[in-house]
Amino acid sequence: MIDPRRLRVLRALADHGTVTAAAAALHLTPSAVSQQLAALESEAGHPLLLRKGRRVSLTPAGSLLVAHAHVVAAELERAQATLDALASGTAGRVAVAAFASAITQVVAPALAALKERSIELSVRDAEGHESVRLLLDGEIDVAITEEHRATDRFARFPLYTEPFDVVLPPGHPLTGPVDLAALADEDWVVTLPGNPLRDVVEMACAQAGFTPRIRHTSDDFRAIQALVAAGAGVALAPRNAVRGVPVAGVAPLRRVVAAVRRGSEDHPLISAVLDELRAPSPVRRVTSRVAARPDHP
What we know:
seven-stranded mixed beta sheet; 10 helices; alpha/beta; two-stranded antiparallel sheet
């Protein structure tokens, strides 16, 4: 094996042209430099130097090895920079939990940019109420959830707002913007108890003057869409989760936030992740245009 420390000596010799000058640059004695170069030639198994009096020049093998030495030195510099960043808290891994459409909207677009900054995301698919529990238990660092689920123990950062649409079975007589009151006699497909989106649906129906007749439940919007398509009932779903028909008048809204344990927002790693999650992207600009009004902290 070639000792990378001796490659540094070879590079210095290539830069300065004499053993004496290389020794001065490396803060070594000329004798020590000569010994290192002799050992490197032995390790390489090729003559590396042509000696002409006090000056030396590189053999073809020596020139080739110097080129590799430059690559090795760059990688060592990069490794040191990464370790320094890790020690300063600006590089490492951050655990994020988000529901499926938020992964598409904000988490996935942030992955590449954060990787360039030596920050790796560990992503977990979890509904908003589950991510809140994971955050409280210390299993994750950032939870993507609905604003009203975040407690005072969290610092919250608005990400985007999206309206709910009505999901109707094929052939349903209502086709345009739907007044929710017109769905009072329908069967409903909703999320499970404890899911914050169920609260939104029940509140919207109450404001329309009725209690939804719940026949089927699921936290998977693909399953909800399939049940509605099979004629099992109607549903209200966030626009980025299931495409439906707009609600007439003021639509219910899902306000999505990034939540972190209060005080942790000042950690350099978490702060960098929050900045990237909130950065504009084409997907989020579309979301903001379809939402009824902007989000607020």
